[in-house]
Structures are given as structure tokens and as C-alpha cells.
Amino acid sequence: MAIEKHDAAQAAALRKIDQEIEQLRAKRTQIIQKAETEAARLEDDLAREEKDYRAALDRWAD
């Protein structure tokens, strides 16, 4: 009886940890996806700003 109770408690504790690991993995994936999306947006902004800057330089040089 005591061994079964111990085993059940241990199994429950391990299931809880496995659930927490899965939650952390999901959160990690979300953070990575958000960071990649933001980095792509920033790169697009930078490219647009560089294009605008070069166009302004060309107009100034004319």
C-alpha cells in the first residue's frame, strides 16, 4: 500500500513537471517567434530609411 501511494505521488509529481516543461517550451517558441517577427520588421524599417536617406542625398546632390 505505501509503495503504491509513493509511486502514485512520484508519477503525479513527474507529470506536473512534464506539463511545466511543455508550457515553458511553448512560451519559448512564442518568444522566439515574436523576436523574429520584430527583427524582420526592424530590418524592413532600416531598409526603408536607408532608401529614403539615399534618395534625399541624390536630390541634394542634383
Quick recap of the structure?
This protein has 62 residues and is mainly α. The chain has one helix and no strands.
Summarize the SSE layout with pairings.
Elements: H1 2-61
Provide a descriptive summary of the structure in words.
The protein is mainly α and 62 residues long. It has a domain at 35-62. It is 97% helix and 0% strand. The chain is built from 1 helix and no strands. The mean pLDDT is 97.
Question: What key phrases describe this protein's structure?
Answer:
mainly alpha; 1 helix; 62 residues
Oligomer: single chain
Question: What would the average pLDDT be, to the nearest integer?
Answer: 97
Question: How large is the radius of gyration?
Answer: 27 Å
Q: Figure out the total of helices.
A: 1
- Extract low-pLDDT stretches: none
Strand tally, please? 0
What best-fitting shape do the alpha-carbon axes yield?
rod-shaped
- β-strand percent reads under 5%
For the biggest sheet, the summary is: none
Cα distance spanning the termini = 91 Å
In N-to-C order, the SSE pattern is: H
Helical residues, percent: over 70%
Structural class: mainly alpha
